[in-house]
Write a structure and sequence with these properties.
Blueprint: H1 7-20, E1 24-25, E2 29-31, E3 34-41, E4 44-53, E5 57-61, H2 68-78, H3 85-88, E6 93-99, E7 108-115, H4 117-125, H5 136-149, E8 151-157, H6 159-169, H7 172-188, E9 195-199, H8 204-210, E10 219-223, H9 230-254, H10 264-277, H11 291-295
Parallel strand pairs: 6-9, 9-10
Antiparallel strand pairs: 1-3, 2-3, 3-4, 4-5, 6-7, 7-8
Helix pairs in contact: 5-9, 7-8
């Protein structure tokens, strides 16, 4: 356990660990023999207590957290270093990530990568990192190298298909879960792996419910900033590379630039597209459930 002189210092340590992983942390309040504070995961508040005792020392109490998946996630964060257990392990790991989720224009891409211990070392050697920290040119180069090292699967949900699925499913997290489940199942056709790690975007049950018989036997973990794991980072690079290629193809097909994200520049591009091609064509280039569509 992290060495600390008192419960307050231990709180500060826990706070820094949670916030580093994108988890919101409240200020503490004193309780009998310790303190307690709350964190928010999946939009739900979870209470954590820290007790201080002369004989037993300082300990973290997670007994108020009843959700097993969330408890597993928090336990991994609390016992610092466990976040990277899969990365340092000799066992294989499937990592999954997506690109295009928050972009009005372009498809949704979900990628999965399998790596054993030797492959993980090679991924580190070539400089694999979270795609959000890399240029498009660097992503393109790394994607070529990753596909030469690891088993992988990429699911591309083009805009027309995306809009059809969204109309049918009616929930982005469920749609994401469907895509993540497909890349996991595809990889399990080629590799024997029981450990899967993905970025946190909703309840882990969403992916589990979307998996088929083989996939339901896996040990699935979701956590914030999972891209810190080199295998998930590799998946993020493959997903982003395919997204950039798809956006370039859209620009070539329609003769205009499509900004990424959902900013005012994106709204202007959407208006321009409608003027040139009509609103009915947006289904082929945009994610129609975004607020931008209603404003056109």
């Amino acid at each position: 356990m992290y060495k600390t002189k008192d419960k307050y210092q231990y709180y500060e340590y826990l706070k820094s660990v949670f916030e580093k992983n994108g988890v919101e942390v409240s200020h503490y309040e004193d309780i009998k023999y310790g303190l307690q504070f709350s964190i928010i995961i999946n939009e739900k508040k979870r209470i954590i207590r820290v007790y201080e005792n002369k004989k037993r020392g300082i300990r973290c109490d997670l007994s108020l957290i009843k959700d097993e998946e969330i408890l597993k996630l928090i336990t991994g964060l609390v016992h610092g270093g466990e976040n990277n257990a899969e990365e340092d392990s000799d066992t294989g790991l499937i990592g999954t990530d997506e690109s295009g989720k928050g972009d009005y224009f372009g498809p949704l891409i979900i990628a999965g990568v399998y790596a054993d211990s030797e492959m993980k070392e090679k991924l580190k050697e070539i400089g694999v990192a979270d795609s959000k920290t890399l240029s498009d040119a660097r992503i393109r180069k790394l994607a070529d190298e990753i596909t030469g090292i690891c088993k992988y699967s990429v699911v591309i949900i083009g805009n027309k298909r995306y809009n059809e699925l969204y109309d049918k499913i009616g929930n982005l997290n469920k749609l994401l879960a469907w895509g993540h489940a497909r890349v996991i199942e595809n990889l399990l056709e080629d590799v024997d792996c029981s450990n899967v790690l993905s970025d946190q975007f909703g309840s882990p049950e969403l992916i589990k419910n979307a998996l088929l018989e083989r996939g339901r036997k896996i040990n699935l973990e979701q956590r914030p900033r999972a891209e810190e794991n080199v295998v998930v980072a590799a998946a993020s690079i493959l997903a982003r590379n395919e997204y950039v290629k798809a956006m370039n193809k859209l620009a070539e097909e329609y003769g205009m630039e499509f900004p990424k994200g959902s900013s005012s520049a994106v709204s202007e591009a959407a208006r321009k597209f409608v003027l040139l091609y009509g609103k009915e064509k947006l289904i082929n280039a945009a994610k129609l459930h975004f607020v931008i569509t209603k404003k056109l």
